[in-house]
Amino acid sequence: MEWMVLPYRRYAEFSGRSTRREYWMFTLLAGLVTLLCVVLMMAGGYAPNRSGQIPVSAEDFGTMFYVGAGLLALFWLGSFIPGIAVAVRRFHDRDMSGWWVIGFAILGRIPFIGWLASLANLVIMALPGTPGANRFGPDPLNPYSADVFN
């Protein structure tokens, strides 16, 4: 649980480096909360009206649908900046500029190229960081391994 909430403690910290564990645990938390909210929304669901027609108005949805949608909106509003910050720090761990986050976000919107960019982003996030210190700071896995006599 510690790794899941660490990006919230480093809310808008775009400098430094983040480990794979920090990034992927935050992603897992976001996925689990989204899944929970979607389950709440589906539990509230909607029921066909008396004539059996598919609902088309807001009155046809249950209360739980709105509770789940509201919780999901609040979660994503609160997680937007930490999500970008942890992605930037993850790129820093690979010794890449954080501006790549915006580049991959833009490329992800282009047809056909988008899935290639998303796959490349996934691979970069899964690769280990550069060992030792780099231009963005010390190694988060072993911060005291600086080459003193190099």
Written description of the protein model:
57% of the residues lie in helices and 0% in strands. With 150 residues, the chain is mainly alpha-helical. The chain has one domain. Helix 1 packs across helix 2 (20-44) and helix 2 runs antiparallel to helix 3 (63-93). The longest helix has 31 residues, at 63-93. The radius of gyration is 20 Å and the shape is elongated. 16% of the residues are buried. The mean pLDDT is 86.
Annotation keywords:
single chain, 150 residues, mainly alpha, 5 helices, elongated
Give a brief rundown of this model.
The protein has 150 residues and is mainly α.
Q: Helical amount among residues, as a percent range? A: 55-70%
Strand content is under 5%
Overall geometric form:
elongated
Q: Pairing-aware structural class of the strands and helices?
A: mainly alpha
Rg, nearest Å: 20 Å
Q: How are helices and strands ordered from N to C?
A: HHHHH
Number of helices: 5
Task: Please tell me the total number of domains.
Answer: 1
Q: Which stretches of 5+ consecutive residues score pLDDT under 50?
A: none
Mean pLDDT: 86
Distance between termini? 38 Å
Largest beta-sheet characterization = none
Number of strands: 0
